[in-house]
Amino acid sequence: xxxxxxxxxxxxWSVIGNTAPVAVDDRRAQxxxxxxxxxxxxxxxxxxxxxxxxxxxxxxxxxxxxxQLTRAQQEAPQxxxxxxxxxxxxxxxxxxxxxxxxxxxxxxxxxxxxxxEHAGETFLNEDGVLFRSTxxxxxxxxxxxxxxxxxxxxxxxxxxxxxWFDDLWLKEGFAQYMAYKAL
Length: 183
Fold this sequence. Notes:
Layout: E1 5-8, E2 14-17, E3 21-24, E4 28-31, E5 44-47, E6 49-52, E7 61-65, H1 69-93, E8 104-108, E9 115-116, E10 121-125, H2 126-129, H3 137-152, H4 168-182
Parallel strand pairs: 7-8, 8-10
Antiparallel strand pairs: 1-4, 2-5, 3-4, 6-7, 9-10
């Protein structure tokens, strides 16, 4: 299906959708129509998020709760670089440019999974990205694999989607394989 999104929001809230907004004011945001995507890939996030934008336009914007902004500013550059390098690698490997109009990473507190690859915007479990204590090499490794796994889904899972959920193992297994390959 193709989706359009028109949201009313409280003042001060950010809204993030599958596509870039085409009209935004203090109370409302309208988003461009998506390309055809599976219905489970439609999503939006709304809340008191802060956007961490890189100076490098190839790197995705990272959205984080305002209460976690200081922590996120320390971690964001590495996460954004891994995602951008993954996009470049996967675009070349698949001989297919990034399939969506933009890519954002949204950190969600208490998210029940490591991540979810919504088309053009990946939701990541905040605790999988922002470390509560001094990170180890294993912590960085797990985070990099998580980011690359979800980024791979933009091609294999989002642009190309399984016929039904009994084939979920195929897209998940391939995304994990490609995350390791990209790393």
